[in-house]
Design goal:
The protein is of the alpha/beta class. It has 8 helices and 12 strands. It has helices at 10-22, 35-44, 61-68, 85-94, 106-119, 159-170, 178-186, 195-208; strands at residues 2-6, 28-32, 49-53, 76-80, 98-101, 133-136, 139-142, 147-150, 153-155, 176-177, 215-218, 222-225. The chain has a 5-stranded parallel β-sheet, sandwiched between helices. A 4-stranded antiparallel β-sheet has the order 6-7-8-9, covered by helices on one side. A 3-stranded antiparallel β-sheet has the order 10-12-11. Strand 11 and strand 12 (222-225) form a beta hairpin. Helix 2 (35-44) runs parallel beside helix 3 (61-68), helix 4 packs across helix 7 (178-186) and helix 6 crosses helix 8 (195-208).
Length: 230
Amino acid sequence: MRILLVEDDEQIREVIRDYFGNHAREYELECAENGPKGLAMLKDNSYDLLLLDVMLPGMSGFSLLRELRRTSSLPVIMITAKIREEDRLRGYELGCDDYVCKPFSIAELCAKIGAVLRRAGNGEKSEAEKDRILNCGPIIVNVNRREVTVKSQKVTLSPKEYDLLVTFMEHPNWIFTREMLLGRIWGMDYEGTERTVDNHVKKLRRNLGTAGKMIKTVFRKGYRLEWEEK
């Protein structure tokens, strides 16, 4: 599994690189010391996961993540010294998958990497790279092909409906506020209202048929996809 670490602290880069080289050899680590270089590497190479510091020279981690989410659903774990709730929420709104707060243990970091990769459906790859599949009972999404099936029947969704569904399926049982979904799907600069989210969720549910009932409204909070793996 190829991982890109974007971190300006040389000591942290070396500690993670040494650990992966000696103890977690299933991961191949590449590093960038600033935001612009990290973004360039992401555009020129293929990775399975991004470890992203928040405070970076040249471009903040939040800005890099915003740019990444325009074209990619690559799993992202943010590394930050900030522990305020609003900072964590901002990262989730922009599309990160998890957080690690400094100082952290390498064991904690590796545990989070494994959990995020499992949620993303990544496993060992064959010579021909396997499709990334999200599976929540009757709903199956082939992310690489942007194909959605419900009970083995193909379903056609609009781009925003598809992005909403993938967001829910990547994080089953998470509660997403309307504000979080607006930032994650439409972008932080979008000038629409939270009613936009309600309308798209309504259409998504309708297009999913009976499986649409899995997307629950959480009173005064937002939405979540209710799914417990058997």
